[in-house]
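Ticket #4471: structure export looks truncated?
Reporter: QA, pipeline team
Priority: medium

Steps to reproduce: submit the single chain below to the structure queue and open the exported record.
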Amino acid sequence: MIVGLLGGGVIGGGWAARFLLNGIDVRLYDPDPEAPRKVEEMVENARHALGRLTFMPLPEPGTLTFAATPEDAADGADFVQESAPERIELKRELLVAASRAARRDVVIASSTSGLLPTRLQEGMHAPERLTVGHPFNPVYLLPLVELCGGTRTAPETLERAADVYRSVGMHPLVVRQEIDGFIADRLLEALWREALWLVSDGVATAEEVDDAIRYGPGLRWSVMGTFLLYRIAGGDEGMRHFMAQFGPALQWPWTKLTDVPELTHELLQRLEQQSDGQAGGRSVRELERLRDDCLVDVLKALRMHGTGAGETLAEYERTLYARGPAAADGDGSAPLRLLETRVLPEWVDYNGHANETMYLRVSSEAGDVLLRLIGIDAEYLRGGGSYYTVETHICHLGEAHADERLHVTTQILGCDEKRLHTFHRVIRSSDEEVLATVEQMLLHVDTTAGRAAPAKPEVLERVRRIAEAHESLPAPERAGRRIAS
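Actual output as written to the record:
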């Protein structure tokens, strides 16, 4: 798949990172001579964030090329995303150019945060394939993308765009009616107006306004949004009880939602000084890295509970699992080489080398590749079958340091209709030193019934073929070892 991108700023660069790191080739047009540097910096931040976000190995990155014209970016692309500044004439010019160059069946999406798609469709060739695809910064990490069609947009355009976005781990939200600002930005603008008034009137500083969000409602919003939270606040009686209690307050004259403070020199200077003070001398890239690291941890926590954006992350991981590379089983003359990876800095502890959780993680990922190889794919999992690890033994033989390249080889020591006995070697790629061995016993289970059960015949046949080939290999020296007292 090839994606054509029009614009490589904060949003366009974020799109580039999300598509590239999901294995999709990108052709990007941006007249800014600094665009290659800026985009590469953003891709590097995204690589760091996505490397921490999921246990699933990401596909091989796509290739990034820079196009000389918007037509070059759109010609031959399978999907086009426009992310130019919010000037309607500029966006129209780019969309018209792209619509002339792209195949008639190619969906063209605009990242606009508020311009109506009907106005953007003017002058386009085949305007029925235009939709708004409004993301949120950082695009490579936040899953929400708002879809909104114009008067000439075909329904299948929204469906096809949603499929593309889901394939790269996003949550498409279709806006039912064409409306300025769509949904999320209308909510954000209301909060932003009140925040500006609080600073303008001297009620609070920029930092105090931010603290009021990040220590309180912001944490709740990430889990349940607005209406579900108020439903809980109504107790056993629910939303009607909540509205009976707090609904009358909506008529009180304290809000300034319909008014905006004048952006005087004094107010802008105050905002600038206070926000610079919050930054504490940290660069934009440093602040972005902090933001991303915190978002990753929030998303992973939500994934554990299967709610909000965590549910989208879990579905994305299932997609990565389903399309992940499966190793060839070879001729049995050597253990399977299943995984290539590197030591992430966060895997390194106070001793300066990777801790035991790293070895569990990489052996688990190698185990997932083995499962795909023997036929445990997404369809098999949906059918209620899987292998669960029931016992693990690690021998630590060497130290792994940050950014070192590793690979994992796997040998099957034995199997029957329910059990699978594996032996992983975690190896430093630069000198082939074995840093750890991880021996595991896996048990096939019927996940619906919650008990052990024989694997399906086609899976057993693949397992036995590899196991028979590995019978000629020397038995690992540490296989069957235990901790002696």
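Status: closed, not a bug. The export was complete when the record was re-opened. Leaving a note from the reviewer for reference: The mean pLDDT is 90.
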